[in-house]
Amino acid sequence: MTTAGRRIPRVLSIAGTDPTGGAGLQADLKSIAAHDGYGMGVVTALVAQNTHGVRSVHVPDVAFLREQLDAVSDDVTIDAVKIGMLGTAEVVRTVTSWLREHRPPVVVVDPVMVATSGDRLLDEDASRAMVSLFELADLVTPNRAELAVLAALAGGSPSSSVDAALLVARTWDVLVLAKGGHDDGTTSDDVLVSASGVVRTFSAPRIATTNTHGTGCSLSSAITTLAARDGDWELAIGGAKAWLTAALLGADALEVGSGNGPIDHGAVVRAALPEPSWTDRWWDDVAGLLQETIDCAFLVGMRDGTLDSDVFAGYLAQDVHYLRAYERHLALLGSWSTGDEAAFWAAAAQGCADEARDLHHRRLAGTHADDPVHPTCAGYLAHLQEAADSGSAGVLAAAVLPCFRVYAWVGTRMGRAAPEHPFADWIAAYGDPGFADASAAATGWVERSAAAATPAERGAMTRAFRRSTEWELAFFRMPMAAGSAAAAGSSAGAGGGAVPAKATVSR
């Protein structure tokens, strides 16, 4: 697979499970995805564990393990394999036999033999069976305790970790990354040793956190993916080490479990590709409504100057009704806010009063001044009142925001009109730079509110914004239907002043 000229490695994890997602197969798949690989998984053992430890382990029949392995290799080209928890000698031999037949270009073995607590996770028979697997590996990634077991299998007991890694590397002609995450000191040092005796240390600041569950699994699967993608072990290890440091830095914020919690596999991805702002996501969500708005007959007629002046006057009459209520809601937001935000909403409320008094009444010039509230206008105002009645400043702010943003956006699409254009003053009002600035400021205040909200309140804000945008479209369609007395009395005229259907809105 390729994307933008870069090949996406297809990486198979052969490992046990962790239902809390911090270690084993689940952690491997997260690590692979975090490094832009396509992850696949074959289960060697079903482990009942959480952040406090392992409760029980169920090892399926090895015949089923082989069926899983064959199902993958019969169909998918595998670029790399990461092997984690195997558990029993029979499982080790089954995986080794399959690997001899289907060895991909990259093979990394994380020898899950000794737990952080010091408990042995493989019996001696299974440990001896690992010897044949090491002969097929490119890289082995033991922690210090596991390294001692491997050195013993190689027939020695060197006093230093580098000497032990060198013995293992030469015995099985494999690269050895001796992990130092459990050591003391201000840095975490992983040492890469080759069979030829080349030694390189990868160092990173030691992160003060107890949330390190699945660190070894995650690091080895990250290395596997990067090695398959980049073709260089040292580059892969350096990149994976930097990623792991960021994942450890973000671990405490996850708040997963009450014991030794997991690392944050997505920390680097989020930093590189931050989520769009809440208000931008809302705006993208209503893109279809916006297109319908700019294409509606009322705005098309205004833009090309063919809109009937009496239809426009009817629209202004309804807008006066709207602005009087909108002014009250903006003032209410001001009373619920403090400092600069309160001043902004208060100024916006005054702007509504000024606009209704000046631009609208000058245009009305006595016509339609006594028009009753149209059902569409009434529906929009009822929606805003519902937002106000929620008692949430965030929900009300989200509900009033489309009146800013939609009108400012329409202004950018309408362009400029010549002085003799029949609606030049109104088109200029849509495109007024001061109003665009006010729209941006309102968006900023709502964005801050959304970021600070609970998910439940943020969801209510999202729906309030979407609903108001639907009402904005209905409001622009309303005057064309209201051009006749019959349509003016209907709240569901075909196409024109139809009230937005609640059936289209998730509640």
TrEMBL record:
Annotated region described as Disordered, given as residue ranges: 487-507
Entry keyword annotation includes Iron: no
Pyridoxamine kinase/Phosphomethylpyrimidine kinase domain residues: 18-264
Thiaminase-2/PQQC domain mapped to chain residues: 287-478
InterPro entries found in the cross-reference section: Haem_Oase-like_multi-hlx, HMP/HMP-P_kinase_dom, PM/HMP-P_kinase-1, Ribokinase-like, Thiaminase-2/PQQC
Pathway membership, UniProt: Cofactor biosynthesis; thiamine diphosphate biosynthesis; 4-amino-2-methyl-5-diphosphomethylpyrimidine from 5-amino-1-(5-phospho-D-ribosyl)imidazole: step 3/3
UniProt key word Nucleotide-binding: yes
Protein name in UniProt: Hydroxymethylpyrimidine kinase/phosphomethylpyrimidine kinase
Originating species: Curtobacterium pusillum
